[in-house]
Amino acid sequence: MARVSDLLAGLAPSATLAVDAKAKALRAAGEPVIGYGAGEPDFATPVAIVEAAARACADPAMHKYTPTAGLPALREAIVDKTRRDSGYEVASSQVLVTNGGKHAVATTFMSLLNPGDEVLIPAPYWTTYPEAVYLTGAVPVPVMTDEARGYRVSVEDLERHRTPRTKLLVFVSPSNPTGAVVAPEDVAAIGRWAAEHDVWVMCDEIYEHLVYGDAHHVSMPVVAPEIADRCVVVNGVAKTYAMTGWRVGWMIAPPDVADAAVTYQSQTTSNISNVSQRAALAAVSGDLSAVAEMRAAFDRRRRTMVAMLNAIDGVTCPEPEGAFYCFPNVTGLLGRSLKGRVASTSAELAEVLLETIKVAVVPGEAFGAPGYFRLSYALGDAELEEGLGRVSDLVAAG
Questions:
Q1: What is the pTM of this model?
Q2: Domain 47-285, what architecture?
């Protein structure tokens, strides 16, 4: 008899976390590894946020259980922040505070999906989306985009994959892993399409503030209000405020879905860490000056990474418009000898880079797109350039 449930035996581990863990372990062992794997800003959490958490540690009220849905003050602050940043008007009763954005995604799926439902997921996709769908018994349906169109999904793409079982669309802009940002008019068109066909939409807005150049983020229920009653918005403090380890996210849902999600959370995690919630309250209630500084650094690194990748023979990389990832095509490196090693897949090529030049990347297989890499530019400028220089030298040497 199997010792592990069939459900979990079929669940794939997070490829991004696995690459990051391996890179950190090698670095701890003294290896000069440069990791492009994790989606984690290299900045410290702003001081005012840390100070708010320190005060919370000394507050006896924060040593006890609090409401499952989150601290009332934080839920109200999320309402205000949502209105300020996207123009979306919601009530605090629609907000559930979760253990990070990933938890918000999983709770949304658990609240809406039944076994056999189909979920449209534009690809390349974040590794967690299909696995979290799988855990509900629903069926993830990848909708492939391509680099020629900047990895942007269209209504026509979605309609080709819609069936009577289609229950939900996962919509994320800016995108992880490609950095694609969907134009406002196209976001509105997708929202109208979903409303017309009674398809729910989960909008992942975790990268809303990380857009560059002329790109512009909009919230779907604002530009397509007809979808608001069938839309769940998920977000969090991790990327915007360099708070990945604080583990605070949230979902904003229609009242009946929000109530169901609170009930589910009451039987799984209960409330999220109170100290982290107080830190998140300081974050979303404060201004965005620290965010602007981080975005400027990411923008500089983005342009550096794109230029260096495109200078490598066999690599092509479109310029991402948001988030902090590049998603280069590396098929031109497959089948070539690199220090006597020949890789036939991007997964094998990632192993070659780690083992020969101590550079850690996430292969495209993890995102439903073999032949590509995801590289985060949320790391220091010197490390970023050093690692890509190693790749360039390896390819040039053959």
A1: 0.94
A2: 3-Layer(aba) Sandwich (3.40)
